[in-house]
Amino acid sequence: MPHSLKAVVRDGHSTTFFEAAAEGRLLLRFSPSSGEWSEPAARVCSVTQAADLEWREASGVGSLVSWTVKPGRATEDRPAVPTVVGLVELEEGPWLPLQLPDVDPADLAVGRAVRVEWVQPEGSEHLPVAVLA
Amino acid sequence: MGVVTHEASGGTAIAGLGITEMGKVYGRTATDFAVEAITLAAADAGLALSEIDGLLVNPGVKNDTDLRLQSTLQMRDARLLATMQGFGSSAGQMVQYASMAIANGMADVVACVYADAPLTEGKRAGASYGGQKRAMEGVQSLQFAAGLQAAPERYAVAARRHMEAYGTTSEQLGAVAVAARQWASMNPDAQMREPITLADHQESRMIADPLRLLDCCLVSNGAVAIIVTSSDRAEALRQPPVHVWGWGQAHPGYVNRRDSEFGLVTGAAPSGADALAMAGVKVDEIDVRELYDCFTYTTLVTLEDYGFCAKGEGGEFVASGAIAPGGSHPTNTGGGELSSFYMWGMTPLSEAVIQARGQGGERQVDKHDLVMVSGNGGVLDFHSTLVVSPHRKS
User: What transmembrane ranges does the database entry give (chain A) (predicted)?
Assistant: First the structure.
């Protein structure tokens, strides 16, 4: 899948997330006390601020909230390649900012169903992207 | 050392304004610009530098000046001193903290300065605001890795959400750019004074859809300083005082989940309401608006959130000509960050001082009894508001 994601390496907080990512599984933060899900970067629950977050596997299904299309720049060798980046609302509630490789911008719409897939830039952990479902 | 005049209820005022040469001015550091701006602001007020006993310093994107500016200024015995960082909301915040310090007898004359020198000769302006440069670590870097790095693409996502929710169009955003340039054409200190048309906007290069080049602010080297003191003292100084009637801050803390109002409603809504309540005025009593316009969309959404038009009707409002010269709601009368210069919140604040004093020359708005000023930082994350007036609050 052609994409333009940049490399990300793991830190202490993200080790479990990227271990699962390598197996194609999306983890989010889940608070047993509130039953609410939070984005991967959350340190406390995004609804109650409870400190009991744990990693839990999410469905990887969601819908588009908003997006931008970066036109890219043409070079002598090739035409400009646009980059589409969207805000995806996962069905569990959290938003993820995800690149949508290989999508026709004309197909983008609020509420458009997407699902998470994975790419691995050179020197990087596996990173989530969104494809139209 | 001066004797402190305790002014628990007398109010505060902006008594001095200093603006350096602005834009593509090379070979000078942020500290160089800051010293010049403070010197200009003190002279403007008719104060000696030695009468300043408080200093608040807001460094810009390069973050290369700070509270050590005190020693550069040979400033003895400061009673209030800090580096401030609320990004684009800093200028309004500095006036607020200076006013509280003065009202409580902690300091008497406070200089507030913003200084930055992000432009380097021969380099693209965008390189200064290019975002992440180090190797990226952890899940907090996922947005940068995906391609949401620089300010235009992150604001583009906000603007797109507004467009999809309310039917706001690119042409309506263009009306904001055209109006700003109309005002700038009457401002001899504006960087961009050549008139533009809506067609120019529509033909300008796409930066991050839906934002085109002419939806984006400038990048400037320079500094702006203001002097805040008690209203009593300001009345005895050289310039007409610009009294501070009300203020607010609101930092929405957008959480990345399904109830987020990101792109739809900003901190301007609660911050503006607080500032108006403190000033004791209604939004329709405001004569002049000086709004933080890092992008055309920011002007539009701030007009909605302050209540100058209904939520979702900002597009029609700006397209009607309301904010342009001759319109019903004069806004960003110096050309704003889009066309005049980009000094974070000091751009709208400095123009508010000029308008409130009645010193706007060709661009002066006839009725300027109440001026509302916004500051916006991050990606709509941080907001401050001021209501100022040439009249003392009764």
Answer: none
Domain A15-132 has CATH 1.10.540.10: no
Choose among B146, B164, B255: nearest Cβ to A98.
B146
From CA A131, how far away is CA A126, in angstroms rounded? 16
Q: In degrees, to the nearest 5, what angle opens at C-alpha B331 toward C-alphas B302 and B296?
A: 50
Q: Which of B356, B301, B362, B281 is nearest to B326 (CA)?
A: B362
Q: How far away is chain B from the Cα of A7, in angstroms, using its nearest Cα?
A: 7
* pLDDT tens-place string over residues A2-53: 899 999 999 999 999 999 999 999 999 999 999 999 999 999 999 999 999 9
Q: How many CB pairs under 8 A join A and B?
A: 115
Answer yes or no: are the C-beta atoms of B237 and B41 closer than 8 Å.
Answer: no
- Domains in chain B: boundaries: 12-116, 150-217+243-394
Question: Which CATH code is given to the segment(s) B12-116?
Answer: 3.40.47.10
pLDDT tens digits, one per residue of B256-300:
999 999 999 999 999 999 999 999 999 999 999 999 999 999 999
Domain positions in chain A are 15-132
Q: Is the dihedral of CA B125, B128, B129, B135 positive or negative?
A: positive
CATH H superfamily, domain B150-217+243-394: Thiolase/Chalcone synthase (3.40.47.10)
